[in-house]
Amino acid sequence: MKQAELKRPGWDDYFMDIALVVKRRGNCLRRQVAAVIVMDHRIISTGYNGTPSGIRNCFEGGCPRCASKVRSGRNLDQCVCAHAEENAIIQAAHYGVALRGATLYCTESPCLLCAKMIISAGIKKVIYGNKYHFSRQVSALFGEAGVVCRRHVRRREGV
Questions:
Q1: Active-site pick, 85, 86, 108, 157
Q2: pTM of the model
């Protein structure tokens, strides 16, 4: 085996690495999150968190909640930002791309709202980086819907 082949990342590492780059586009002042949707080892949609298209970005004062000093998890009804998973699903819909059977890679575990969208979009696998408010309800919904959900564990290169 050639040296270059030994350092080739596995698919999960590859798509999670791409998600980490996409995450840098997030315009939320509080947390940057990204999602990459894949079908047959090909990227079909990406999304990052932030204000909707045409609305001032968070860092420009577009979201009153993000501009405030409210604690994490509070006043969520004031937030106008869309989640990364939500944006990736919306982008696919905008361009007429079906998601049935796709895999979604996300830098954070999905919330309940995103879990419902993931299920409704027909996505069958979710691989996430960090565990963020991953609830039993999300886990139960994914289980009932047949969506495989697991945390990403980085492979050793060359394995």
A1: 85
A2: 0.88
